[in-house]
Q: What sequence folds into this?
């Protein structure tokens, strides 16, 4: 049986979405980015051989700021073409990298994939459509790694992409289905978050995993009724609603209500713990 594709190119920031219809014998086909066979690498210049100048006024003011009074900092910047040191402060000190590595991953994606690469989320189906518009088969949503589906950062109407999908399904004559809607989320595997991540980082809004499908920034809003001081706040709901999600509430309402709480949990589990 031939499998027909409803392909929706749900494009990342600054690109509009479009749709087209394709036919294919293989539902699990992927578009693989072409990587050059040979990458010419310039020889790296060892840090110890570079001329090191005194740190600039900007770096000096930063390392002596109040916010870093009890902190630790290592900073090294160089011109990769000339090898000249732009600035250096304890450049040979090894520290745990943080969000600065986003610059490296972003630059790598631009270099390997190119600035015009489109991350597509495809809506597919198999089976037969009757004259009455009933699909006997399944609809598949195949993730392409697009992180902007329903993102608060790029759209006022965060559910617009769902309407695009529905319109594309109706366009091919499907009014109802006798089957299932299946999400194919295996583009990067299912682990999502590396095993060496800190437990405390998993509960933060910046601690997002890497998945083939990500919607609404992978964030839900938790609504609590703070109630009486000294007692546990009541969990009201989450938005969007997540079926089967439960909370082990270990937090307590503090006088004045001014107390941070944290939500911890393991990826792919529907249980979360609320902690102070």
A:
């Amino acid at each position: 049986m031939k499998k027909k594709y409803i392909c929706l190119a749900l494009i990342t920031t600054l690109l509009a979405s479009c749709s087209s219809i394709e036919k294919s014998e293989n539902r699990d086909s992927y578009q693989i980015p072409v990587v050059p066979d040979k990458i010419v690498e310039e020889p790296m210049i060892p840090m110890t051989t570079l001329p090191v100048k005194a740190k600039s006024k900007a770096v000096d003011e930063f390392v002596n700021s109040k916010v870093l009074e009890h902190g630790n900092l290592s900073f090294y910047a160089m011109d990769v073409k000339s090898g000249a040191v732009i600035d250096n402060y304890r450049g040979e000190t090894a520290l745990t990298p943080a969000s600065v590595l986003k610059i490296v991953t972003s630059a790598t994606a631009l270099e390997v994939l190119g600035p015009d690469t489109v991350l597509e989320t495809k809506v597919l189906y198999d089976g037969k459509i009757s004259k009455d518009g009933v699909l006997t088969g399944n609809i598949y949503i195949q993730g392409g790694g697009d992180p902007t589906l329903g993102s608060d950062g790029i759209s006022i109407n965060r559910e617009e992409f769902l309407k695009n999908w529905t319109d594309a399904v109706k366009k091919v004559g499907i009014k109802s289905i006798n089957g299932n809607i299946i999400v194919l989320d295996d583009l990067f595997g299912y682990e999502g978050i590396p095993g060496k991540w800190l437990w405390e980082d998993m509960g933060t809004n910046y601690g997002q995993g890497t998945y083939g499908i990500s919607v609404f920034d992978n964030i839900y809003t938790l609504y609590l009724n703070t109630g009486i001081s000294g007692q546990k706040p009541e969990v009201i709901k989450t938005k969007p609603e997540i079926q089967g999600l439960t909370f082990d509430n270990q937090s307590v309402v503090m006088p004045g209500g001014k107390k941070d709480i944290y939500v911890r949990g393991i990826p792919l589990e529907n249980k979360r713990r609320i902690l102070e």
